[in-house]
Amino acid sequence: MELMQKSPTTKYKPWGTIDLPNRTWPGKTIDRVPHWCSVDLRDGNQALPIPMGVKEKLELFKLLVQIGFKEIEVGFPSAAQTEFDFARKLIEDNLVPDDVALQVLTQAREHLIKRSFESLRGAKKAIVHVYNSTSPLQRRVTFGMSKEQIKRIAVDGVKLIRKLLPELEGTEVRLEYSPESFSDTEVDYALEVCEAVMEAWEPTEKKPIILNLPATVELFTPNVHADQIEWFCQNLKERDKAIISLHTHNDRGTGTAATELGLLAGANRVEGTLFGNGERTGNLDIVTVALNMYSQGLHPGLDFSNMENIRDTYERTTGMTVHDRHPYGGDLVFTAFSGSHQDAIKKGMDLREKEGDSDQDHWQVPYLSIDPRDLGRSYEAIIRINSQSGKGGVAYVLSREFGLELPKPMHPEVGLLMNDKADSESRELAADEIYATFKAEFLEKHSPLQLLGCQTTKIKGSEENVSCLASVVLNGESKSIEGQGNGPINAFVHALENHGVKDFKLTDYRQHSIGGGSATESAAFVQLQTKSGKTAYGCGIDSSIEKSGLLALVSAFNRTRR
């Protein structure tokens, strides 16, 4: 087995730079929405181990339309019967909205172009996407042709398309030309071929040609790609008669960056796929680029507000899986396990709620660049609990999922309880498990003290003082205890003292309601401190405010006796 070369390497060399001393793209921002073209049904499909059938392609096509794509490359109809049949079904069954253009890909070869035209008969809007390879590697290895011969292939293909236009009467036809492997083509030669194509097509400002400049294989850093695009845009003779399109791949892991810098450099159209499906390491992920724009205040014109449905449909039709960490669409992208992150998120969310959770207010929550609700994601999924989680995260889950607003001094106790459980079982805890653990520890411990019943009555002649008669089990013995105080809880404490239990004091009491209407319950929290200095919180939940407080005291009492 061959191993990586030791330094210095001789097998690979840097690709160099573009001579562009007057580049302007570094000082620009993306302030315009590009034309979007989905190539899921062609580039994405051809990369699948098991390509989609007509049924799957149709389902994915409908999803792409729902998202808002107006240009959709539906396939390579001259390459396979399934591809041809799919294009025909879309047209014959009137499944294409009037404002959506069907794009078909074809090599610049006569019989393939003619077959592509057959697939488009009856379409309202169509983009014929013709291409041929232009790079020196392809010229030498694949074709054994000169520059002039390669250019002739492109020009002849375009001339044939122009000649065949009468066959698509009633169809609004646009031309897209791609010098395949533009990323590996001399920029001056790519420009020469594209200008020859434009001369053959004769575009206008109102009917521009689409010049697609593919990074068929990503070969260098995104800044060099941006220089290529800006150099091309600067030197194209009739720039106003062309839409400059990007088609990046992700071989170096920087397809998104290359696209964003390419837009800064002057491109105004983007081809890509959902979640980056495509050859090798994939195409550009349009979801990421579009939502990056959205997070910067520029609506992309695509709707990803039901991300779960989009992902489910994508996974079902392609057989691919969206990674848990995939930007915006992954299960864990809005999730924090780290305690410090959870605490910051909780504080940000609480502050936003306090100040007014409005779409008119600038989104500012630590660790969350975008509001999960904008993508149809719930807040409950933001914070998840494992052994690395903090006290604030557990409190957040109990609050958001179950309406329990724990006193802040109580957070460490509850957080440690959950961390210990997650650590001992070496796994994440679901929200229901968190509540079940809380319930077992704080609501269901009945030893050494259990409250069986309690009756309070006002003491005559006093506005505040009450008498408490309670039935309890203490240290395994049933007892009836009685005491007086300035409220039910204080009276119950005195009742315990009257029976020799005098080693604690109440240091904190909180109460709030859960739910609304007839289903409203009261949640109470009590902290006790023993004479030895040990403190513990307890919790009680009941439809009665009075009883919830007594249950909370009993809970705290039992927890100080552990």
Please characterize this protein's 3D structure.
The chain has 562 residues and is of the alpha/beta class. It has three domains: 34-318, Alpha-Beta Barrel (TIM Barrel), CATH 3.20.20.70; 339-443, no CATH class; 449-560, Double Stranded RNA Binding Domain (2-Layer Sandwich), CATH 3.30.160.270. It is 38% helix and 19% strand. It has 17 helices and 14 strands. The chain has helices spanning 40-46, 54-67, 81-92, 110-119, 136-143, 147-164, 187-201, 222-235, 255-264, 286-294, 307-318, 339-355, 391-402, 411-425, 431-443, 488-498, 545-560, and strands spanning 35-38, 71-75, 101-107, 125-133, 172-180, 209-215, 242-248, 269-272, 449-458, 466-474, 477-485, 504-514, 521-530, 535-542. It has an eight-stranded parallel barrel, surrounded by eight helices. Helix 7 links the parallel strand 5 (172-180) and strand 6 (209-215). Helix 4 runs parallel beside helix 6, helix 8 runs parallel beside helix 9 and helix 13 (391-402) packs across helix 14 (411-425). The longest helix is centred in the N-terminal third of the chain and has 18 residues, at 147-164. The model has no long low-confidence stretch (mean pLDDT 93).
Give the helices and strands, then pairings:
Elements: E1 35-38, H1 40-46, H2 54-67, E2 71-75, H3 81-92, E3 101-107, H4 110-119, E4 125-133, H5 136-143, H6 147-164, E5 172-180, H7 187-201, E6 209-215, H8 222-235, E7 242-248, H9 255-264, E8 269-272, H10 286-294, H11 307-318, H12 339-355, H13 391-402, H14 411-425, H15 431-443, E9 449-458, E10 466-474, E11 477-485, H16 488-498, E12 504-514, E13 521-530, E14 535-542, H17 545-560
Parallel strand pairs: 1-2, 1-8, 2-3, 3-4, 4-5, 5-6, 6-7, 7-8
Antiparallel strand pairs: 9-10, 10-11, 12-13, 13-14
Helix pairs in contact: 2-11, 4-6, 6-7, 7-8, 8-9, 12-13, 13-14
